[in-house]
Amino acid sequence: MIRSELIQKIADENPHLYQRDVERIVNTIFEEITGAMSRGDRVELRGFGAFSVKQRDARVGRNPRTGETVHVEEKHVPFFKTGKLLRDRLNGND
């Protein structure tokens, strides 16, 4: 599902809301999650999962095409851990 499909589904299920308002709500939620993660905070949505940021240390890697060594700098990457309810639902344990 992509963002526009999510907005359309929410708008269809809530006919009392204008689509532009639903779009603003969805965008605000994503902006808040992104903002919190960029500050290094953890975002937990109960029953769904938790978003956090992990730090990857600098390392020496290899260029797969040439085989030469390449320095890979330290970086921060997003990490998602599923919640128990989502895991159970995915595995058919409703």
TrEMBL record:
Heterodimer of an alpha and a beta chain. Keywords: DNA recombination, DNA-binding, Transcription, Transcription regulation, Translation regulation. Pfam families: Bac_DNA_binding. GO terms for molecular function: DNA binding; structural constituent of chromatin. InterPro entries: Hist_DNA-bd, Histone-like_DNA-bd_CS, IHF-like_DNA-bd_dom_sf, IHF_beta. NCBIfam families: hip, PRK00199.1. The keyword Protein transport does not apply. GO terms for cellular component: chromosome; cytosol. It comes from the Bacteria. Signal peptide: none annotated. This protein is one of the two subunits of integration host factor, a specific DNA-binding protein that functions in genetic recombination as well as in transcriptional and translational control. SMART domains: BHL. CDD domains: IHF_B. The gene is ihfB. Belongs to the bacterial histone-like protein family. This is Integration host factor subunit beta. The lineage of its organism: Bacteria, Pseudomonadati, Pseudomonadota, Alphaproteobacteria, Rhodobacterales. One of its GO terms (biological process) is regulation of translation.
